[in-house]
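Lab notebook, bench 4. The sequencing result for the construct came back, and we need a structural model before the next group meeting so we can plan mutations. Quick request posted to the team channel:

Model the 3D structure of this chain.
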Amino acid sequence: MDGIKINLATKIIIRSLFLLWSLVVIYPMFWTLQSSLKSNKDLFQNIWGFPAVYKFANYTNAWVKGHIGDYFFNSVYVTCVAMACSVLIITMAAYAIGRSGGKISRVLTVYFIVVMMIPGSIAIIPQYLIIFDLGLINNLNGLVLKYTADSLPFGIFVLTGFYKSVPKEMEEAAHIDGCGYIRTYWNIMLPLVKPGVYTICIFNFLGFWNEYFFALITMSDPAKYTISVGVFCLQRGLGASVCRIRHCNGSFDSRICFFSKEHYKRFDYRRFKGLAICLYKEGRGRFKWN
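Done. Here's the predicted structure in token form:
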């Protein structure tokens, strides 16, 4: 009986802590939303309170005058195309490395680990020169190429481990049934590593969507700005309350890739662990106001 009481008390404490943490995380998002509906004067005079007058025109000004719509669709294009290219390359490369075995597989694994140890800032100048030589400066496809290349080492390293965890008998059974390597990869192996693919997609989405510096130095045409670069034009030309609209957008759009997935309804431990790591990393840099 005492054991049951202790277990019940423990559950209550744990759930209370989770509820408290949820409030701590949700309130800044709520504050950002209500701040975007204030005037500049109201924002600085009544920073924590509700808006004296709800100014929905802030969103119209941001979309029309601030060209936030153009920046948004530029980011959508870059993010979607880069994610599609990176996931396709990562899943195929990781399958080849993870299932081949041998010395080459080990060498490639070490190679990708070494590449991940190189700070990204060191590669900015070489990457810029490559993009320049390809004639992709001031071109959204240059960002797609850069983002795709940056995501490969980590994605291949992570997904290789998922492929290695799949029993070899699954692949052998597919070959016995007449499946070639491509069909085995697409119909057998890829569905079995979906948790790893979802995890990589979330990491890539957050990285591509929030990337700022390289987009800044390669895009000189305002019509080609991504949303991370365009927000600075929005901050200069419009008020601080309107700028909160950008932060509202950044707070909510990154959760689309999590809540819109069917696997959210039927996740196992591995899926939850990978997604929790992604959301934790994303939350660490969430509220850095410019």
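DSSP finds 15 helices and no strands in the chain.
Will bring this to the meeting.
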